[in-house]
Specification:
The chain has 457 residues and is an alpha+beta fold. Helices cover 32% and strands 19% of the residues. The strands form five sheets. It has an eight-stranded antiparallel sheet. Strands 10-15-12-13 form a four-stranded antiparallel sheet. A three-stranded antiparallel sheet has the order 2-1-16, with no helix packed on it.
Amino acid sequence: MPPSKLADAVAASQGAENQNGLVERITWLECFTDKERTSEFCEATDPAGNLESNSSTGHKEYQDRLRAIALRKEGLEKAEIAEAIGRPTKFVQTWWRKEPKEVPKPAGVHDYLRTDFWRDIEIVRGFGKGQRIYEDALTSMEWVQPMADGREFKNGGGYRLKYDKEGRMRPQGNQHAKDGVIPGKLPELDKLMQRVMVEQGIDDRVLKRPGLLWYPDGHADAIVHRHEAWTALMSFGSPRILTIDGHPVLLRDGDLIVFGTQRHGVPKMCHEGSTFGDYGGRMSVVMFFMPTGQQATGAAPWKAIHDSGPSRKATAMLRDADLGHDAQVAGLLSGERASEMQQLMDIGFDAPQAAAALNAAGFDVAAAVEMLLNRSVPLLADSCEACIDRSGQIAALLCRLEARAACFAAPKLKSCPQPEGGGTYRIGGSEVACKPFGEVITVLDLRSLLGKGWRQL
């Protein structure tokens, strides 16, 4: 089944009460029309997890047409496809035998927007809660207010400055840190960003230095817009509405949201009965990054970035889209990559380390072990939760290999090297050099150990 729709999740949370009966009533203004709206939010029922969201019925229509084609090519029957995409069989019948290039784009789907960048959204509540990021950044950064710019939809999507009704250049509705997020200036923020990049797998795909935006009060805003890349956004300070395809999502201190090309904005807002000027300040850390795998090549832009079952398809989607640390690890352990994960875990690495290394090494087990032992997995060496004792891991690797060899008749290890010396293994009838622990273990060494010997042992 398709993931839950953001619109349904938002509607379900409206007016809900937690055990203390705490409901926040927020007044906010729609972008462009300034129409006043009032929404109710309850922390206990805030939308979270993976949610489907489309910018328009046209985007949804086009995406489902492509999904019908791709699911047919995967071997699904008409009725199965209809259930998977939530459409009638008549809809599937119309499109499933066509090629993607034959499918017309409905009105509202702009030609310059890459459909292979579509993805669902993910909301992680409390990801960086209580770290005082807002208070620390407020006095540490130099804040500037640039002129507003954005896409020009009528003329091919080029960028242009934005003007007000009187023809004057319009300043942006918020301020931003002049040099973005400067490493080392906010240590707690650095740690959170490392977590985001490791758990979302985006460390080598961030397009530029992450930005830091400041909304001093309820008057500050960001007009509705969209990006061609994917976005990972963390919110700090007072709760603030982020509209996603027109649906209000209240982001609280430390919340993380990851989304694709959906239209989004930050409206002017305040508590009901109060004023915009009285509302507290909020900051957002924004990272733009590129998709990977099938999403990057455009091979399957329709693919949902969420699947509740531990199937091969779910594992592939979780791996390629990097939707979340826990979900990704669980998917790898239960999917077709489970054997590679188990090999690394048998050596002595934990599941998160194994998942990160396998992703970075393209699921080459020997290369993944080398990266872990040599501390070259991106960001792992700097992560508090993934620090690696290199000598200890190498010793554990060799001892486990020796122990497994001793448990079976053949092949056995010719010698057991000591921590300060070298030695050789005899595996599959050939000797493999073992370097001292102080030297770098190469892929060739590990491929010999893991490729020929591991499976035999």
